[in-house]
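From the methods appendix. Each design record in this collection lists the tokenized structure first, followed by the designed amino acid sequence. Records were kept in a plain field format so they could be parsed without special tools. The example shown here is representative of the layout used throughout.

RECORD:
FOLD TOKENS (363 positions):
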């Protein structure tokens, strides 16, 4: 099959990393995969086996311009189909999903990675109705793959226009992560530390992370790996100073390989207001690093089951998070990690994706 992944760019972000993992796994199964990009921004290493197409469209497409750029995409797709038709194209970013929503082509599958239920629930009644209208228009007659049951539940509760709704978790190359976690890291951390890896953005609720650190019993460090909003980062730096934490926090830019830092951490923390899945939680489990997360919507509760649920914080309480950190530091680590991350291995996930493609094509 010829399988496309329609993305905004190839920056070091969750959607792009997941799409690359799927594409590489599908190529190993004998399929031909293409990356179709709105623009050429690239921070990831791309294997030669992947074909890349750059449409040179704006980084952010305003709604008034969607039709114009959708027509350009359709012209490109018609040209490519004449060489060898695509069987499916996964649309994984907001702009590419919005473009696909105005095209009546069942090959364009929505791969939904996000769920902003937190913001939705805090809207007024009228704004909720407007949001539901937009969602129904966005997903009309589309086959949708959601990266978690939480994302699927949110769509099913608010949308009735989609063609099909499916849940397939994000894939992880466990062997690759195990190898990379043993590599030498250029960032040396003195002493014990906990770690956050991800975007520096308000929905990640990092001020809660700082408050929690201020309450732990020990003087362990907090390593924050990631980039994002400069304004928000400056607010966090000032917050850390006010909490007398500035000497206990190390800021590290995005890393292609954060796994050595995750591997050596006492715990990985996630304090988000909402997630689509929570990739970094699984990556930490593969590194045999304990995880603590807020029970945000959605993703973490589907990863952190059984004994892991002891460190799933049901409210946004810095006291409870600090207590969980103290328990991990004091209590040791006897978790049987493999039984929790095995289901997310890319070799299992890619089979589910191919089976779904075959099912949708038959339908």
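DESIGN:
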């Amino acid at each position: 099959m010829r399988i496309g992944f329609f993305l905004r760019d190839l920056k070091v972000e969750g959607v792009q990393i997941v799409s690359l993992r799927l594409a590489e796994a599908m190529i190993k199964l004998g399929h031909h995969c293409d990356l179709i990009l709105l623009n050429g921004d690239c921070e990831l290493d791309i294997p030669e086996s992947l074909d890349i197409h750059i449409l040179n469209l704006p980084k952010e497409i305003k709604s008034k311009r969607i039709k114009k750029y959708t027509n350009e995409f359709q012209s490109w797709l018609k040209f490519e189909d004449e060489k060898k038709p695509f069987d499916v194209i996964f649309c994984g970013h907001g702009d590419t999903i919005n473009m696909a929503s105005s095209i009546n082509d069942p090959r364009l599958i929505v791969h939904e990675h996000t769920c902003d239920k937190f913001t939705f629930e805090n809207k007024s009644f009228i704004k909720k109705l407007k949001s539901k209208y937009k969602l129904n228009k966005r997903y009309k007659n589309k086959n949708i793959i959601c990266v978690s049951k939480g994302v699927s539940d949110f769509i099913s509760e608010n949308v009735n226009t989609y063609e099909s709704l499916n849940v397939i978790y994000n894939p992880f190359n466990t062997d690759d992560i195990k190898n990379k976690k043993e590599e030498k890291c250029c960032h040396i951390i003195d002493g014990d530390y906990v770690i956050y890896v991800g975007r520096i953005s308000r929905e990640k609720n990092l001020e809660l992370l700082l408050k929690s650190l201020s309450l732990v019993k020990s003087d362990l460090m907090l390593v924050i790996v990631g980039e994002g909003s400069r304004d928000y980062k400056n607010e966090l730096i000032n917050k850390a100073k006010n909490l007398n934490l500035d000497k206990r926090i190390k800021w590290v830019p995005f890393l292609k390989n954060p796994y050595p830092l995750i591997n050596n951490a006492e715990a990985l923390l996630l304090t988000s207001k909402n997630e689509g899945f929570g990739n970094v939680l699984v990556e930490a489990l593969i590194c045999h690093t304990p995880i603590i997360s807020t029970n945000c919507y959605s993703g973490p509760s589907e990863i952190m089951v059984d004994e892991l649920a002891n460190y799933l914080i049901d409210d946004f309480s810095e006291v409870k998070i600090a207590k969980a950190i103290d328990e991990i530091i004091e209590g040791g680590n006897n978790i049987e990690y493999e039984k929790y991350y095995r289901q997310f291995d890319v070799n299992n996930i890619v089979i589910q994706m191919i089976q779904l493609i075959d099912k949708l094509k038959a339908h």
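APPENDIX NOTE: DSSP finds 15 helices and 13 strands in the chain.
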